[in-house]
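Hi L.,

You mentioned the student needs an example of a multi-chain input paired with its predicted structure. This one should do, with 666 residues in total across all chains.
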Amino acid sequence: MNKPTILTGDRTTGPLHIGHYAGSLANRLRFQDSHEQFLLLADTQALTDNAHDPAKVQRNVVEVALDYLAVGIDPDRCTICVQSHLPALAELTMLYLNFVTVARLERNPTIKDEIRARGFGRDIPAGFLCYPAAQAADITAFKATIVPVGADQAPLIEQTNEIVRRINATAGHDVLPEAQAIIPKAGRLPGIDGKAKMSKSGGNAIPLSASPDEIRSAVRAMFTDPNHLRVEDPGRVEGNVVFTYLDAFDPDQDELAELKAQYKRGGLGDGKIKARLETILQNLIAPIRARRAAFSKDRAYVLKVIKDGTERARQRTEETKRDVVNGLGLFQL
Amino acid sequence: MNKPTILTGDRTTGPLHIGHYAGSLANRLRFQDSHEQFLLLADTQALTDNAHDPAKVQRNVVEVALDYLAVGIDPDRCTICVQSHLPALAELTMLYLNFVTVARLERNPTIKDEIRARGFGRDIPAGFLCYPAAQAADITAFKATIVPVGADQAPLIEQTNEIVRRINATAGHDVLPEAQAIIPKAGRLPGIDGKAKMSKSGGNAIPLSASPDEIRSAVRAMFTDPNHLRVEDPGRVEGNVVFTYLDAFDPDQDELAELKAQYKRGGLGDGKIKARLETILQNLIAPIRARRAAFSKDRAYVLKVIKDGTERARQRTEETKRDVVNGLGLFQL
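Structure written out for the whole complex:
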């Protein structure tokens, strides 16, 4: 039971896609035995910028859980839990909000970027500005010491640790552990159109439930090198989505290195590399799709997985809340 | 069971004083039969500007409950409950924060004034900025339709109702009732030194547990009219703390009107009016002090009152949370 604890999860705003697979799901599978993992179905956080569409957030709780099971997350080894059903997270958030200033939240680079990306302007929902404190609550409530995040999210872990240090200083001893961000090598997978962000709403994602035809069309439509018109021309590998995806998914990276060299020299057509990628993605997704279809038919089982995991998570998070209440000497009945 | 519901309460930052009695406790006694009343021991809110001193906030939960019992609040007719032990309040706050913008919170006149009064400058704790959403959660969680507040707090009720309307609009039907502020005629009682705010930390308050000697010295030290040097001089009644207190506590308001007229004409000494006020305050506080001393010796009883009330409040607030979750169609296990 001395395995290090990882907190990770996904906002429940849509089914997951192969970008999630490369960026995080593959690592979660890898860590199933070596680490204690809590996977948070982050519906509360999803509402911070989707309060106008709660139905979407609600629907996707089960969709994301299905994706987890489909890729091979084992609910006996990982705890899959729903954020909105863990009251200690909200209670700790409320407490932590007193240990961080508005100015500090506004300075958070991740929040600044995301406010810009969402076009909130001055109309930032207060919940959105506060979400670093909520994330600190999530991380610390599980006493997670490892948090996998994208490079752009690293400032959030720093902010979590600031709150942890303030809580510990007020308590006079270490109530909560600091957490360490681990940033996956893969980086964020671009959309099939080459745009930085793959998203269902952007229409440039390949979902984990994609049909063989959808995979085929997506790879065919994929952005390569617009100046690579004839097979014999030299082509660019950087910014070429097919190669970026091959970097992420090709099991034979040596052969891939040779193909890249050939592509750069000239003499390798887009058709060839697309065919290679398509085969790899078909092989990757086929068993995921099959398992997803099977689990989809057994909604009761999926709900039981979520319920059992949430109950385990509830015990852990309530225990941490008691530790914080004790540590700070707050009122107890 | 069709009594209108009132939510009221006090931040647990210190024992209550006669300003609280005049401003709110007297009304609560008056409403014990005609209204359903929830009295919130607001320890979570107290932390929004006292996170550096959680021990103070903790200690005063029982002190404020003692004050309630001492003035005659009947725990069988009023529900005395602890804010930090009602998780639905934190959960609803998190949700409501998504229905209010940062700009709107910053524009709230009450928050603006209080930020200035506390000298926060740019270092406003995020929890403090967010407290109107927390207050909206408190009010709506009890489905209170009446909220007694000082005149300066009325904008908070308006903000609560804005959130209520947004929740109801998103749900497509009325999940939550709007609330009405009632502003006590009495207004806020000044400190004995004439300063606008009576507070224990300001050393200008008469606590509900004041000893006969403390009451005597407080009245002797009380600010009157600095230009009223000789008995025969005309004196000012406005801004004269003794008369302000007599306005609030004198059971014979007709006689008081005559005394005021005499004071203004000249011929009434400060000693006389101070003696009158002292008698009134000694009579008011003596039974409160005696009951407070008795309840203080039975801490187990006080804790039971808090525990039972908090359990009743928990049922009510969890029910409202379910209504909101159902209304918005959020995920349910």
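You could point out the following to them. The beta strands of chain A are 5-11, 36-42, 78-82, 146-148, 180-182. The longest strand of chain A covers residues 5-11.

Best wishes,
N.
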